[in-house]
Amino acid sequence: MKTAREADLEEESLQENGVIKTTQDQHSSISPPASTVSGVPDDEPFSTYFEEKVPIPEDVTQMFSFRKLWAFTGPGFLMSIAYLDPGNIESDLQSGAKAGFKLLWVLLGATIIGLLLQRLAARLGVVTGMHLAEVCNRQYPTVPRIILWLMVELAIIGSDMQEVIGCAIAFNLLSVGRIPLWGGVLITIIDTFVFLFLDKYGLRKLEAFFGFLITIMAVSFGYEYVMVRPDQGELLKGMFLPYCEGCGPAQMEQAVGIVGAVIMPHNIYLHSALVKSRSIDRGNKKEVKEANKYYFIESTIALFISFLINVFVVAVFAEAFYEKTNIEVNAMCNASGSPHTDLFPLDNSRLQVDIYKGGVVLGCFFGPVALYIWAIGILAAGQSSTMTGTYSGQFVMEGFLNLRWSRFARVLLTRSIAIFPTLLVAIFQDVQHLTGMNDFLNVLQSMQLPFALIPILTFTSLTSIMNDFANGLVWKIGGGVVILVVCAINMHFVVVYVTSLSSVALYVLAGLLCIAYLCFVGYLAWHCLIALGVSCLDVSCLASRMLTGHNDIYLLKDMDSDTMVERLEEEHVGGVVISSDTVRS
């Protein structure tokens, strides 16, 4: 028998080594990363993004508390803005103009899939206290980690370009062409810097500002919806009947584009970080479980609202402009005295719309008020998503590279990376070329999806990281199937886009890039399959697994084999959880 003194010493030793014993009422997980940056003292207080944590009210008498739900409300709505960015709005209006109401069920399915993926992201942040980029930094070797960071940065740059383009177009429409596109880009740069520092006046004020922008979008696009008065029967039929009667390649390509626009890779990284803004005792299993429940409820509400706003846009263009021809629109714009009649050639081809033309067409058919309200909605969508995109860039850069820069330096760098190429395009191209870039940017983001979806499924499936909150069998299988389907759909989108380029040189370049791309995706998928339980793939650790029975031992690469076996046996027998400080790669 151990004396009380010996037990205390053993407990202190375990805590010093990053190992914490669990009891029925306590849960332990990976600790937030400690600083390893030279020249910065470890005890120096450092504000990463949120200088405060929102306290959670205690209410032990109720299974559900609206006060607690209100305290957890915020991160889900910031996350939902990515479902309302200008790229999504353009996908919505094109879906309505090309297929009517027939693809609403695709939008509904994509939103539900997005909700399930966001659930995994939120759980990772709540349980571990680290966001996805930080976990990737600790788990993957150096070279794959750097490649992964570059791929995620590309996705963020692509998304930011769409958002800044949306803002610039909105300014152009609101000023009746007086503000050029490059001027709109510069205005977006300035006001983004201003708004990003709102959280210095309180995190809840920042979240309230984002809520205000979402309200503007809902009112703006809701106004267009009420004015057009779409057929409700056709709308419900298109939403709940998974069939597309009379659809051809153009409609099928649009369906794929909807999935690619809705599910965005950087949003997984963003949501896993935003949930860290609440004061949660991760050593208390009950609190962690409760936080997961309320975050899921909040995310469901937020994505339901974003889904309704997307439906407003689809329905407006489905009712008013489905199967319209250019010559019909040209005649209507002429009759209304619109200065943009030359956008629509005098032919009988189907109307092709984008964010800019969409506003013009609304103005021609329903008056200038409809155009200005549309522009206000696009401006709110672009401005809010630009800000969340900047936060994504900050989280990703600090997480992957373990940077500890000043707040201004981080904002300046992440905004410059995204804004500079957009500004060049705005200066040297006209509005039609600028909006035409959205197809390329959607393809770019579609290609980056595996670099968010595969890691999130991998890490949330590992008991060494998530402990009691690791994915069960149903989530592992379901998550794997969903990710496989989403990635396959988006790769089809990429193939369709590349084959439309009609250039042998581009085919060769695309082929070489695809080989490298598929090799890296295969590497990530290999690790993911091992985490999901396909242990036969982990040849290098076969002997260790035979001793321990753990499929996730391959992650503990900084420990020698004897220590790995010993520690994992302790976890298996005594409920000991490994701290993140011993799980670095």
From TrEMBL:
Main location: membrane
Stretches for region Disordered: 1-42
Subcellular location, record wording: Late endosome membrane; Lysosome membrane
Sorted UniProt keywords: Ion transport, Iron, Iron transport, Lysosome, Membrane, Transmembrane, Transmembrane helix, Transport
TM segment ranges: 104-126, 179-198, 210-228, 255-274, 295-318, 355-381, 412-429, 449-466, 473-498, 504-526
Biased composition annotated in UniProt, kind: Polar residues: 20-38
UniProt GO MF annotations: cadmium ion transmembrane transporter activity; iron ion transmembrane transporter activity; manganese ion transmembrane transporter activity
Membrane topology recorded in Swiss-Prot or TrEMBL: Multi-pass membrane protein
InterPro entries for this protein: NRAMP_fam
Annotated GO CC locations: late endosome membrane; lysosomal membrane; plasma membrane
NCBIfam families: nramp, Nramp_1
Family: Belongs to the NRAMP family.
PANTHER family listed in its UniProt record: NATURAL RESISTANCE-ASSOCIATED MACROPHAGE PROTEIN 2, SOLUTE CARRIER PROTEIN FAMILY 11 MEMBER
Protein name in the entry: Natural resistance-associated macrophage protein 2-like
Gene coding for it: LOC106565428
